[in-house]
Amino acid sequence: MTRLRFFIDVDGFTVGETVFLEGAEFHHLRGVVRIAEGEEVFLVNGRGWVAKGTVEAVERHRCVIRILSSEHTQAPSAKLFLGVSLLRPNHLDFAIEKGCEVGVDQFVLFPADKSERKESSPALRRRLDSIITAAMKQSGRVFRPEVQEASSLKEALLLLPSPRLFADLHEGAVLLSKRLEELSKENPLSLLIGPESGWSDDERKLLLVEGPPVLLHTNVLRAETAAIVAAYTASLWFQS
């Protein structure tokens, strides 16, 4: 079972120093978990640091924590990239949350020709930021996945390293598991998931330059399900 962790946006942790837990994380500690003075907590910063600390004071708007021990993990090279077209808010939330849990290192969001949503917003970015933080803590990860935004599929392709595999039910699609057998685990991998209505003809022509499409399942999957299945399959392949 993953021990309960709290996220704090600092560069690192030094034994003996005091840090302050504020905002949503503080409210979770005080109002949900109800941790009291004198108890020990674990902190992460999403950059490879994990620290154990003791709660010295629970104030009105913040918690004072003294660092007892800390450890740092060197950042590995980003391996798994997931390009996701803008979906309905709750569907996109689900794809990002579960993608983080199964090991996606970087997300690239973009509006596809048939996307129901055509642009991002500050509110969307704040919500996804919160979702990724929670998923990182829950899954025991010490590095927080990044989210980049592109204005189109063409721009998204520039942000995603090769090989770039796109999911599609189009004729000629190769099972993702078979396609992965042809690739090297030493290199990064990018997966692209289109909108609920599929890729447009122009987008498909652009993507076919990268190679044939990959098939995730013989059944028709919702876009957010496709994102999770693709990420999960690729993550297991990297670990095998």
Q: Would you kindly provide a written description of the structure presented here, covering whatever features stand out?
A:
- The protein has helices at 23-33, 89-102, 122-139, 153-159, 176-180, 201-208, 223-239, and strands at 5-7, 18-22, 40-44, 49-58, 62-72, 80-85, 106-110, 146-149, 164-166, 174-175, 189-193, 214-215.
- It has 240 residues and is an alpha/beta fold.
- The protein has two domains: 5-72, Beta Barrel (Ribosomal Protein L25, Chain P), CATH 2.40.240.20; 80-239, Alpha/beta knot (3-Layer(aba) Sandwich).
- Strands 1-3-4-5-2 form a five-stranded mixed β-sheet. A five-stranded parallel β-sheet has the order 8-7-6-11-9, with helices on both faces.
- A hairpin with a 3-residue loop joins β4 (49-58) and β5.
- α2 runs parallel beside α3 (122-139) and α2 (89-102) runs parallel beside α7 (223-239).
- The longest helix has 18 residues, at 122-139.
- The relative contact order is 0.15.
- The model has no long low-confidence stretch (mean pLDDT 94).
Question: What layout of secondary structure does this protein have?
Answer:
Blueprint: E1 5-7, E2 18-22, H1 23-33, E3 40-44, E4 49-58, E5 62-72, E6 80-85, H2 89-102, E7 106-110, H3 122-139, E8 146-149, H4 153-159, E9 164-166, E10 174-175, H5 176-180, E11 189-193, H6 201-208, E12 214-215, H7 223-239
Helix pairs in contact: 2-3, 2-7
